[in-house]
């Protein structure tokens, strides 16, 4: 902040004197602008978050690489009613996947409640083209509307990628707070 005030002072003095900004002042300005752009892009982006493996789901047939949730600058993720949350999930299946279904649940006091998705078919509207090949890394994008009538509450969110045989390709949970 001190550098920004000094830069502003230098620019003002040079403008009053009718001079063009010197090379040093221009370099300082460029560095500050770059730093601000990096800071703003970091704040606007989601955060790769820590998730837990599901405890109630049968054999997992894939490797979960990362989960990036926007907006979620810190955990627990705070989702505001009437907005959308976007998760980008990177994973690698351990087998060929012909198709699958996405499921999202809220776990409140140990009770699992289904959150219906607008597009539960994993192979449509999520950036995937099935069949998925074994050992290849894929990126799935899921947008979940946080409905205005959802209660404001702390809970654990669970997401499953279910295979046609009922087993999960991957499953994870993360702490969430739904707020106004």
Poorly predicted sequence stretches spanning 5 or more consecutive residues: 1-5, 25-45
What is the averaged pLDDT score? Answer: 81
Assign the CATH architecture of the largest domain.
Sandwich
> Might you state the CATH topology name of the largest domain?
Immunoglobulin-like
Class by alpha and beta content: alpha+beta
Beta-strand fraction estimate: 35-45%
Number of strand elements: 10
Estimate the helix proportion, in percent.
Answer: 10-25%
Major sheet size, sense and barrel closure: 6 strands, mixed
How many domains would you count in the coordinates? 2
The first-level CATH class name of the largest domain: Mainly Beta
User: From N to C, what is the helix and strand string?
Assistant: HHEEEEEEEEEE
Ends: how far apart? 33 Å
List keywords for this structure.
about 180 residues; alpha+beta; Immunoglobulin-like; 2 domains; 6-stranded mixed beta sheet; 4-stranded antiparallel beta sheet; 10 strands; globular; disordered N terminus
